[in-house]
Amino acid sequence: MNRVNVVDQALDLLDEVGLDAVSTRRLAKRLGVEQPSLYYHFRNKEELLGAMAEAAMAPHGTAPLPQPGDPWRDWFLENTRSFRRTLLMRRDGARLHSGHLPGGVDLDRIAHKMRFLLASGLPERDAQMAMLAAGRYTVGSVLEEQANTGPAVEADHPIVPTIDNESAFEAGLALIVDGLAQRAGA
Q: Which positions fall inside the HTH tetR-type domain (predicted)?
């Protein structure tokens, strides 16, 4: 048993039972060890959840970084879509991610992305707020999507149209990007 194996098994447990049912007791049983053995690798459940969140985000962490000359708009859209796809890969992925701040390599990647947006001519504060807004919008969208097991509204509701999760996400993302483009042009 090592730290990577514990996290992998914890993520598999998450996919099977959901975040509310993940416990160190249940994980220890799955690993065939006594619960205190887990504390050799993680001081507490919160530390384990942080490691799980970091590991769950690994697919997004391997997405290509923007290169000079890339259109910022295309990159921004794909980066946000990649984030959404990664959150959706795990049951309760958005809940697991929520509240865990990036560190280390992730911060370096974020700094690279910000430098790219600034080099593309976007005002610094607008680029920062757009990245923050897109991230929070994505987490919120996925939270709703993963929590919703039925239709959000009745079909043919007079005020809220029936729309699938991906189309709704894309429509909101377009509003964020269009707003950033408008600010960039001002």
A: 1-60
